[in-house]
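Request from the bench team (R.T.):
"We need a structural guess for the complex before ordering more zinc ion. Sequence and SMILES attached. Just send the tokens back."

Command: build protein-zinc ion structure.
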Amino acid sequence: MTQAPAWLVSMVLHVAVLLTLALIVTPPPENAGIKTIESPPTESVDDVEEIQPVDLTPDDQETQEEVEEVTEAPQTVEVETVEVVSDASDLAAAQTSIDVSDMSADISVSTDLLKTVGKSGGSKAGFGARANAATQKEMIKAGGGNPDEIIRAVESSCDWFKRHQMPDGGWSFDFRQCPGCMGKCKNPETESHLKDRAAATALALLPMLGQGYTHTAQGTKGKYRQQVDKGLAFLCQAVIAGRGKAYSGGGNMYSQGLVGIVLSEAYGMTKDQRLAVPAQAAIDFIMAAQDPVGGGWRYQPRQAGDTSAVCWQVMALKSGNMSGLRVDPMVVKKVSTFLDFVQSDGGAAYGYSSPGDRPALNAAGLLCRMFTEWKKTNEALLRGAKKLAKGGPSKDMYTSYYATQVLYHVKQQLPKEWDDWQRKMSQMLIKAQFTDGHQAGSYYEGFNTGHAPHVGGRIYVTSMATMTLEVYFKHGLPLYQDTGKETDDFVE
Ligand SMILES: [Zn+2]
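Reply to R.T.: structure attached below.
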């Protein structure tokens, strides 16, 4: 190599880089039947009409039996997808409606579409509860937490996210080029597989929405109007361009679930009709991407599921349902097929893609059970929840985020377990948050355990930690308002 002329070295390197790029940009094979359009539609309606949905054939290695199910089972889901986003005039309307930052935009264009929205469970006014500061404090107190400390930590985190927004309105796992940071924060995530901006943007917006900050809120909750506004516009554009598919740049169904939650929550909280089409499109894509055989989700649409990917989609469907978006009850019912398959210990424990027993997946699996079918008094649920509580809050925020939600929801059934948990959890998170200097409000050090930090760096850890602290009030109303009655509005 040292003997080789410089031009030869350069050429070899360029070829290698080009080959690598070719591998990266080659789209992964998608499975049967999902009608997606890879190239973003242009503004011209004529151009949009020329784009044809792509029907992909099932993987060769699938058995004939499976292939038959793949082609038959999801018919109704596909029809719904087409209804919402595939008609050219609808799409034009949707495009008109995505400029969330233009508050004077004509929202009447999407009114027709809205007639198909909101026919399922409908909002139980749940998201609105977050906006009231007094209610928030009461709920933290009722959960045993210290309202001042928790609200201060959450506010500080929102401020850190605000300072790390990119000029285009989105966020990036690699925030070194963010004008507000320029490398002052450690632990950006720079892996090439995480160029997906949608996931980072969703993770930044979730804590803000959880704290009641929206793009339309007035008064103190209007503090981040502009930031949330630009962030939502960024996600809406991604969803419209992908005709429901939110992710790109190495993203996957994890990103889709996160974006589905954000758009559903923002729509549910504000009822801003410009969000209706993108939010429904994101939810429709999730429904269409369900593995038609096993009922789960994985990295790519219609792959056999894993518990982790499943949980993000279930949360998105739950949020969509609460917000009055259309969620097909059959899709939700089918999740049970997947959960039955990966459960162990009578449903108290869960594996990744086969029966197992790991704290992170136990927590995720139990949360899915609660959101889809099980009552809070379910014996296996309470047994599993007790086991989670025994382990105590983990510094793997993935585990703690799910486990905190599970234990919060059963706090009436397991009051001692919840109280021990919430005290340890909140003290851990309040103590570990950066309070000084540029990194104030963020999390990373001490939490680089589990797979999380290697996936999303400081953005991911900060988001998960903040959402865990928000459980006191974010999930307090109305789904699991402690009437002893369970929500069953998923399955009508
Ligand atoms: Zn920074």
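Two things stood out. The pocket of zinc ion is lined by residues 164, 175, 181, 184-185, 438 (CB under 6 Å). Confidence is low (pLDDT under 50) at residues 18-125, 477-492.
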